[in-house]
Structure formats: C-alpha cells, structure tokens
From TrEMBL:
<dbReference type="Pfam" id="PF05940">
    <property type="entry name" value="NnrS"/>
</dbReference>
<feature type="transmembrane region" description="Helical">
    <location>
        <begin position="12"/>
        <end position="33"/>
    </location>
</feature>
<feature type="transmembrane region" description="Helical">
    <location>
        <begin position="208"/>
        <end position="225"/>
    </location>
</feature>
<feature type="transmembrane region" description="Helical">
    <location>
        <begin position="137"/>
        <end position="157"/>
    </location>
</feature>
<dbReference type="InterPro" id="IPR010266">
    <property type="entry name" value="NnrS"/>
</dbReference>
<feature type="transmembrane region" description="Helical">
    <location>
        <begin position="107"/>
        <end position="125"/>
    </location>
</feature>
<feature type="transmembrane region" description="Helical">
    <location>
        <begin position="331"/>
        <end position="351"/>
    </location>
</feature>
<protein>
    <submittedName>
        <fullName>NnrS family protein</fullName>
    </submittedName>
</protein>
<feature type="transmembrane region" description="Helical">
    <location>
        <begin position="169"/>
        <end position="188"/>
    </location>
</feature>
<feature type="transmembrane region" description="Helical">
    <location>
        <begin position="82"/>
        <end position="101"/>
    </location>
</feature>
<feature type="transmembrane region" description="Helical">
    <location>
        <begin position="266"/>
        <end position="286"/>
    </location>
</feature>
<keyword id="KW-0472">Membrane</keyword>
<feature type="transmembrane region" description="Helical">
    <location>
        <begin position="357"/>
        <end position="377"/>
    </location>
</feature>
<feature type="transmembrane region" description="Helical">
    <location>
        <begin position="298"/>
        <end position="319"/>
    </location>
</feature>
<feature type="transmembrane region" description="Helical">
    <location>
        <begin position="53"/>
        <end position="70"/>
    </location>
</feature>
<keyword id="KW-1133">Transmembrane helix</keyword>
<feature type="transmembrane region" description="Helical">
    <location>
        <begin position="237"/>
        <end position="254"/>
    </location>
</feature>
C-alpha cells in the first residue's frame, strides 16, 4: 500500500502515514513500557510515546485536513504541489530524527523535530491570514503553541530527562481547540446542513458555552503549572471540578435530535465525553487522588478526546476525498468505539496498577486495530479514487 504523492492526492498521504504512525506508537511503546523490548533510544517509553503522538501523529492529521480546510475556511484553492511535498518530507525527517536520537546530539534531534511544525505554521498561516477570520487565527494560535510546546518538551528532556510542562502545554492547546469548537471540528455542522437540509440546525450558543469555555481554558492553564504551587491544591481541584461539570453540561446540550439520525452524533459524543472526564480525574488528583489520577486524566484527554476526535476528522476528511456521504458506517463506528475502549482500558490501568499487564496490552491492541483499520480503509478508498471506481457511501 504505497501512499500517493501529496502533490496529487492533497492531504491523503498525511492521513495514511498519521494512522500508521499511531498504530506503530502503540505496537512499540506497549512492549517497551512492559520491559519486553529495549530500543536503543535515550528517551523513556512514555516520553517517546507522548512526543510522537502530540508532535507527530496529531500534526500530521492537521496537515492531512489542511487541503480540505483551506477552501472551506478561506474560499481559496487548497495548497498543493511542492508545499505539501516539503511538509511530508520534513515530517518524515522528524520521525527519523527521534528514531535515531541515540546517535545524534539533543539539539540536532530537537531541530529536526521542529522543522515540521514550523513549516506547517508557515503553510497554514499563509493561507489563513489572507481572510483575517477569527476562527482561522485560533487554528494558527494552536499550531504556534504546539511549536512552543515542542521546543519546551525538548528543553525539559535535555535538562531533566523528562517533560512535564511541555507535554501539558501541548495537551492543553489541543484540548482548547476542541473546547472552542464545541467538541467538534470545523465544518461538521455545515456538512450536516448541506447533506440533510435546514431541518437539522446546529445547537445555538448560550451562556453555558461561554462559561464552559472560560472555565475550561482557565482550568487548563492552572493544570499546566499545577506542580509549581501557584494555587492551593484544593483551589486547583475545585476549579478543575467546576470545569468538568461545565463541560458535561455543555455536552448535554448537544442532543441527537439536533442532528441527522444515525451513528455520526453518538461517536462524536463518545469522544467529547472524555473532555469532562479528564477534568474530573485531574480534579481528583488535586484533591488527594495522587499521580494515578493525573495519569488517568492525561490518557482520558489524549487517547479518548484528542485521539477520538483526530480519528473523527480523519474519517470525515477521507470520506470527503472519496465523495462519500458525511456519515459513519458500521465499520468506522466500530473503530471509534475501539479507540474509546482503548482509552477506558488505559485509564483503568492508571487507576488500578495491579492489572497493568492485562489492561495496557488490551488498550494497545484496540488502538492498533482501530488505526490500522482506518489505514486499510483509506488506502482502499484512495486506490478506488485513483481508478475512478469510487461510489458514494449509503447513509447510516
């Protein structure tokens, strides 16, 4: 299954490689974490896994969505040709730099890894700044924060041997994006209205949304620097708790009756449900739950919310490339549920370390199965598209 050139296939190769890399992460990091293998790498298994997910997989998916997002958000033709080819090349260079980090200086590894996010900001910024649209500036701000977070990650890794604040800053930036977008990525509501008509309007904004967004952003800011003692642990816990309940209330407003029938809405709600769950678990850590609750919160946000939402965007973008309907098939619903189950298993492993040898391999297997299945589906759709044999999908 050879990925086509990005100059001809838009962001398709990024989606394919992002999915394959997500599967490789779990396939390597799980046995590494359990001590079954010992790769020659100066990073610990959690550090490598966190870096490659937050700064490898997710930015690759953003790059894969970029050729679709640019026309939708700016009205301009999508970027293509050498900019996307260059992006793909520097993404691969960054992954190779991490893989060969045992033979390279830390500064060299950091510079190789930072090439891709900097180039992505440059390409996206050139397109989005033409419109001066506030939502586009939000996307650029998130990408810029990811660049800073990755630089901080490498500095902490060099200075302390592990990254705490760089990792949390990256997670917070990606979560802020999903919170500001009401738990769904740009264009989903518009796609529903185009496909199903005005009888399925988007839920209007209310004060609940504003309060939830404000509390969520404030709580994430406190969570990033939680170990610095800026706020009393009980105050931090209370703020995280309030943010969790506010996010849950916001999610409750997004009722299935406001969207077309079928499986699209439930799978999105499952991914979004991990956002308030993460806040509540982080609150538990501040209120006496300890590091186990912190680890559980981190995996609720990364595997459940960010991973689930990334998969949603990948499936919808791939379907758009093939001319399929903006709905969820039984198979794509299954891979969404597999990611959610993987996140639940990993959260349970953090809260119950005695079952680590059972739950972490289970989480890894479900994660690998989900992203490999998407890669196979996307590769098949790309092949059919290239041969002109694509047929629109039937509604769910």
């Amino acid at each position: 299954m050879n990925p086509p050139s990005p100059s001809k296939a838009g962001g398709g190769p990024f989606l394919l490689l992002g999915a394959l890399h997500a599967a490789v992460l779990a396939a390597v990091s799980v046995p590494w974490f359990l001590g079954l293998i010992s790769p020659e790498m100066p990073l610990s298994p959690p550090s490598w896994h966190a870096h490659e997910f937050l700064f490898g997989v997710v930015p690759a998916i953003i790059a894969g969505v970029l050729p679709t997002a640019v026309p939708n958000r700016t009205g301009h033709p999508p970027p293509g040709g050498w900019p996307l080819t260059m992006l793909l090349a520097v993404w691969i260079v960054g992954r190779l730099g991490l893989a060969g980090s045992a033979a390279l200086e830390p500064l060299t590894v950091a510079l190789l890894a930072l090439l891709f996010p900097v180039a992505l900001v440059a390409v996206a910024g050139r397109e989005f700044l033409l419109t001066r649209n506030g939502r586009n500036l939000t996307v650029l701000a998130v990408l810029a924060i990811l660049v800073g977070a990755q630089g901080l990650f490498h500095w902490e890794l060099w200075r302390f041997g592990r990254s705490v604040h760089g990792t949390r800053l990256a997670v917070a930036a990606l979560l802020a994006w999903t919170v500001l977008e009401a738990g769904i990525m740009p264009g989903i509501a518009g796609g529903w209205r185009k496909a199903y008509g005005p009888s399925h309007p988007q839920v209007p904004s209310s004060r609940i949304d504003g309060v939830a967004m404000g509390l969520g952003l404030l709580a994430l800011g406190i969570w990033i620097v939680q170990d610095e003692g800026i706020l009393n642990e009980h105050l931090s816990g209370a703020l995280l708790l309030a943010a969790g309940f506010a996010q849950a209330a916001r999610l409750a407003r997004w009722r299935p009756r406001h969207a077309p029938s079928g499986r699209s809405v439930p799978v999105l709600r499952v991914s979004c449900a991990f956002i308030p769950a993460g806040f509540l678990l982080a609150a538990g850590a501040s209120l006496g739950g300890g590091t186990a609750f912190n680890a559980a919160a981190l995996h609720a946000w990364t595997m459940g919310a960010i991973g689930g939402m990334a998969l949603t965007v990948m499936v919808r973008t791939a379907a758009g490339h093939s001319g399929a309907a903006p709905t969820a098939s039984r198979l794509t619903t299954g891979i969404h549920l597999a990611v959610a189950a993987a996140a639940c298993a990993r959260i349970a492993a953090a809260l119950d370390p005695q079952r680590t040898m059972l739950l972490i391999p289970l989480a890894g297997a479900l994660w690998v199965a989900a992203f490999l299945t998407f890669a196979l589906l996307h590769g098949r759709m790309s092949g059919r598209r290239a041969s002109g044999a694509v047929r629109p999908a039937t509604p769910d």
